[in-house]
């Protein structure tokens, strides 16, 4: 599993921001920025839709005021699903990362097999990335939602 001090692996992902979808390398996405990245098992799932993403939407201005350049939400879903979810959640300030093939999730060692729920998914976590390097990492235990919340992230910033 990726650790504090490690560089984010270089892979291609799809990003969705302000309704626009782009393919981008993680090297480009995280270069020269302070980023709050949080990940969750799936778009449109109960905890993810009711608590995890909404918390970051509500606290986006507070997070940006701490010197953060980008808030990103990652899920092992395709770009169409992530775009639709962003629209239904009014997540205009959040960059959605569609890791459809789980390439980034697997490269970081933060994947899990959810079986019949949806196969390979991301574990729930949050991290701070500075110029492509992980400076803080909070990985949830299975079926919990505590250390990766927006409130917990604000305490770290």
From TrEMBL:
Gene3D superfamilies xref list: Glutaredoxin (3.40.30.10)
InterPro entries for this protein: PRX5-like, Redoxin, Thioredoxin-like_sf, Thioredoxin_domain
GO biological process terms on file: cell redox homeostasis; cellular response to oxidative stress; hydrogen peroxide catabolic process
Organism the protein comes from: Amphritea atlantica
Recorded catalytic activity of this chain's protein: a hydroperoxide + 2 glutathione = an alcohol + glutathione disulfide + H2O
Keywords: Antioxidant, Oxidoreductase, Peroxidase, Redox-active center
Active site: 48 (cysteine sulfenic acid (-soh) intermediate)
Domain Thioredoxin, residue spans: 2-157
GO molecular function ontology, one term from the record: thioredoxin peroxidase activity
Family to which the UniProt record says this protein belongs: Belongs to the peroxiredoxin family. Prx5 subfamily.
Cellular component, GO, one term: cytoplasm
CDD domains recorded: PRX5_like
Function: Thiol-specific peroxidase that catalyzes the reduction of hydrogen peroxide and organic hydroperoxides to water and alcohols, respectively. Plays a role in cell protection against oxidative stress by detoxifying peroxides.
Entry protein name: Glutathione-dependent peroxiredoxin
SUPFAM superfamilies named in the record: Thioredoxin-like (SSF52833)
Keyword Oxidoreductase: yes
Documented EC number(s): 1.11.1.27
